């Protein structure tokens, strides 16, 4: 890791932790954020997000634990979400403490999903975009018909039903900003992506970006990143955040994104 990258990580990782994790806000009506303290400790030990219902996102976003408090905190979160009858996710980051927190979560019954890279870019530092490749137009999702197109593109990209994704996109139609976008080849949806705004922070999160296999490698993913970056900048945001898979990470690195570390979802089924 070169010096510039080290300096970037040193500056952005504490900012990300403070704004996007410790200071996380509820993601919609009816959802809530709870900050848990423990006797004998000063300040918050666990920050958890409780969805409006079982279909919402439930999980631990941030923790400040050590070897003496970790097991008790894990047990308390398991008992809490079990009382709600909900599965939940402990979103673990590579720099979280104690160092053996992954082992402790597995011992408590959590199952790890694939690790992803936590990647961030300053919007102002992105290279200029050249627009979508020839034969592709980008269609902002502003109504139910657009949601149908986005879901169809995602199902082609991932080869599985995306009905839960449909509900999320329908809920996002209430935003004043078109948060999802579909790449169209004529009348055929071939790729789709969305973003989430985080008011009170400098970050916008990018999600999705799935492209139909026969359309990969043509610059569609890159065009979707630039499209969302322009919208984010227009609304005063300064940074983009992605939980990147192994497939998308090289594209993001070529765009100037820096890996701040790793993140792994640990899932607990009640």
TrEMBL record:
**Cross-referenced InterPro entries, in alphabetical order?**
Acyl_CoA_acyltransferase, GNAT_dom
* Enzyme Commission number(s): 2.3.-.-
| Top-rank taxon, per record | Bacteria
Q: Does the keyword Transcription apply?
A: no
Taking every annotated instance into account, which residue ranges of this chain make up the domain N-acetyltransferase? 136-270
- Which is one GO molecular function term here? acyltransferase activity
Q: Which major enzyme category is it?
A: transferase
Keyword annotations from UniProtKB, A to Z: Acyltransferase, Transferase
Q: List the SUPFAM superfamilies hit by this protein, alphabetically.
A: Acyl-CoA N-acyltransferases (Nat)
Q: What is this protein called?
A: GNAT family N-acetyltransferase
